[in-house]
Design goal:
The protein has 419 residues and is of the alpha+beta class. It folds into two domains: 122 residues, Beta Barrel (OB fold (Dihydrolipoamide Acetyltransferase, E2P)), CATH 2.40.50; 220 residues, Chloramphenicol acetyltransferase-like domain (Chloramphenicol Acetyltransferase), CATH 3.30.559.10. The chain has 13 helices and 19 strands. Strands 9, 12, 15, 16, 17, 18 and 19 form a seven-stranded mixed sheet that branches. It has a four-stranded antiparallel sheet with strand order 1-8-6-3, with no helix packed on it. A hairpin with a 2-residue loop joins strand 18 and strand 19. The longest helix has 18 residues.
């Protein structure tokens, strides 16, 4: 008797998702609650567990297909997976006789295709593998998979990138000459890859923010000397006591919470014809994930210590790379901080995260000549950028917020005494 596998509930207001990849192929033995597929929603990847133990039946949908909540995507047959194992041996024994694969096309498609599909179709790769491919610049079609059913793993990509590639030098001329005769004389190539659901959502939300809000950006700069000295002095003791490294984000989150109390409109939002003011600070922190930027929320950050903030952000960063962030962890948020400085950005104009009214952009630290007490000195400086919804936040309030933030960073004692 077959048991249907359906798309589970994905969270409030989410009615559909995109099938990212199949983790189990037809004929594979599966245990109850074992992940058999991954779904890509607007924000995160969600694994679909097996409702019962048995043998994986035929797939009803393919990677890239859009599926609704509650829709059937596969079946699980009763059994322990022994039968499919015997089927895999028959084509091997009957290899000289070419009629055997023709009589069982479904089996060969299910057992031999995954390796080719994984190599040729980037959308079929797991999030961690796609990230590794982008980071190392490896063509997945050239990587031999060592995973289940020939699937490409992250280690396969890293190993392929580490090879000196002597083999590519010989076949390269032949591969380039043939396309040149049939296509473009220059030998240039194009690749079309379907946008992931996450990337589509990012594009949609950013454009909506530009269309619906009156976005304006105000800048200031900040002397990082005091924070850098405090970090250098206490980072070892901090890590030993709290088990997490002392970074800059803890200081900026706490300084932002103080500035938000001084300027409540930056922590507010517009709903219809009403302004909603929040007496708490839920800080959305932009984190880089394999499929794009996600913004998990540090809830009640104003009530946290610097150590608690650092631990929370560190956990978010790790799980964003693994694709294990939960949907509820990215809902809400009253203000956003985006740190482009880790990628070397000098200055930017970040876009607000609706319905929030403000986003703080942090940038790289570099030594610059500044005037202090009438003397030209070299100081580690950072540009700060506050983008805000001018429908709600006036220029005076935006400048006041940045000055309060700047004062707290340049004199971290203010954070301790809430000044």
């Amino acid at each position: 008797m077959a048991t249907e596998v359906t798309v589970p509930a994905l969270g409030e207001s989410i009615t559909e998702a995109t099938l990212g990849e199949w983790l189990k192929q037809p004929g594979d033995a599966v245990a109850a609650d074992e992940p058999i597929a991954s779904l890509e929603t607007d924000k995160v990847s969600v694994e679909v567990p097996a409702p019962v133990a048995g043998v994986m039946g035929p797939h009803a949908v393919q990677p890239g297909d859009t599926v609704a909540v509650g829709a059937m995507i596969a079946t699980i047959e009763a059994g322990d997976g022994a039968a499919p194992a015997k089927k895999e041996e028959k084509p091997a024994e009957a290899k000289p006789a070419e009629a055997a694969p023709a009589n069982k096309p479904a089996e060969t498609a299910g057992q031999q295709a995954p390796a080719a599909v994984e190599g040729d179709t980037p959308a079929a790769l797991s999030p961690s593998v796609r990230r590794a491919v982008l980071e190392h610049g490896v063509d997945p079609a050239t990587v031999k998979g060592t995973g289940k059913d020939g699937r490409i793993t992250k280690d396969d990509v890293v190993a392929a990138a580490a090879k000196p590639a002597p083999s590519t030098s010989a076949p390269a001329p032949a591969e380039q000459v043939a396309p040149a005769a049939t296509s473009a004389p220059s030998g240039r190539k194009e690749e079309r890859v379907r946008m992931t659901r996450l990337r589509q959502t990012i594009a949609k939300r950013l454009k909506e923010a530009q269309n619906n809000a009156a976005i304006l950006t105000t800048f200031n700069d900040c002397d990082m000397t005091a924070v850098m000295e405090a970090r250098a002095k206490y980072k070892d003791l901090f890590e030993k006591k709290h088990g997490v490294r002392l970074g800059f984000m803890g200081f900026f989150v706490k300084a932002a919470c103080m500035a938000l109390k001084d300027v409540p409109s930056v922590n507010a939002s517009i709903e219809g014809e009403e302004i909603v003011y929040h007496d708490y600070a839920d800080i959305s922190v932009a984190v880089s994930a394999p499929g794009g930027l996600v913004v998990p929320v540090v809830r009640d950050a104003d009530q946290m210590s610097v150590a608690q903030v650092e631990k929370t952000i560190g956990d978010f960063g790790k799980r964003a790379k693994d694709g294990t962030l939960k949907m509820e962890e990215m809902k809400g948020g009253t203000f956003t901080i985006s740190n482009g400085g880790v990628f070397g950005s000098l200055m930017s104009t970040p876009i607000i995260n609706p319905p929030q009214s403000g986003v703080l952009g942090l940038h790289r630290i570099e030594d610059r000549a500044v005037v202090v007490d009438g003397q030209i000195v070299i100081r580690p400086m950072m540009y700060l950028a506050l983008s805000y919804d001018h429908r709600l936040v006036d220029g005076r309030e935006a400048v006041t917020f940045l000055v309060a933030l700047k004062n707290a960073i340049e004199d971290p004692t203010r954070i301790l005494i809430d000044l």
